[in-house]
């Protein structure tokens, strides 16, 4: 039954990571410069999941569960904004800014949060089963 | 042999099979819940009704053999539920869960998953409670004889 806990925990870790990625997208929705101060508009990121969890401690946990396979950059998530006075503007007066829709991100965050709760409920159910099984020994 | 007879008395083998099945199925349900937002993930499960039918057949066969009072339960292995040498069950889900494919080609149905989770825990609790009662009775009988 420890395998079931591993599986639910892998779901919680994956959804938490996804939530962190979404929070980063919202926080950086208007960011035009990178950490070095160069003009480098923030690109939207997304956490991609894959079945199975190589980091689990039990065999069941490794063969089942879920993990984040990569955090992908969306190279096309930029849109032009007319700002002729900006030193980074092109010949037509446009600069590229992050194309991040905060409403979509909020919806994704809500979905991640609900999925996290579902995994917590599954872990709670497994804990109930474990304590029930322990009662047989007492 | 004596201990074997004690462990195989009455409804104990049936309850034991139920505990093993629900404990293993908990892995599958947790796996489906963990992959609720994994693209291309098709949710699968084992058929509870076919396991129950299989269990029913084994109980009937045991009843014919020993009047249902003693004896081990001979559960047949199927392509979904393989019975190990020591009575352990290994589940290989073959039954695709119903559900419409979402835009990421995942057939999730979180409400049904949570229902399955609750029902599975309920079945496990029922079986363990009944097993507890059986072992409690045995324990009382033993202590009275010893005392």
Can you characterise this structure?
The complex is a heterodimer of chains A (138) and B (147). Chain A is α+β, with helices and mostly antiparallel strands and 138 residues long. Helices cover 49% and strands 18% of the residues of chain A. Chain A has three helices and four strands; from the N terminus they run αβαβββα. Chain A has helices at residues 2-27, 59-63, 102-137, and strands spanning 45-51, 66-73, 78-82, 94-98. In chain A, the strands form two sheets. Chain A has a two-stranded antiparallel ribbon with strand order 1-2. A two-stranded antiparallel ribbon of chain A has the order 3-4. The radius of gyration of chain A is 21 Å and the shape is elongated. In chain A, 28% of the residues are buried. The mean pLDDT of chain A is 92. In chain B, strands 1-4 form a two-stranded antiparallel ribbon. With 147 residues, chain B is mainly alpha-helical. Chain B is elongated and about 65 Å long. Chain B has helices at 2-7, 12-34, 48-66, 110-146; strands at residues 44-45, 81-83, 89-91, 95-96. In chain B, helix 2 runs antiparallel to helix 4. In chain B, a hairpin with a 5-residue loop joins strand 2 (81-83) and strand 3. The chains are: A alpha+beta (138), B mainly alpha (147). The A-B interface holds A 1, 3-5, 7-8, 10-11, 14-15, 18, 48-51, 60, 64-66, 111-112, 114-115, 118-119, 121-123, 125-126, 128-129, 132-133, 135-136 and B 19, 22-23, 26-31, 33-39, 41, 110, 113-114, 117-118, 120-121, 124-125, 128-129, 131-132, 135.
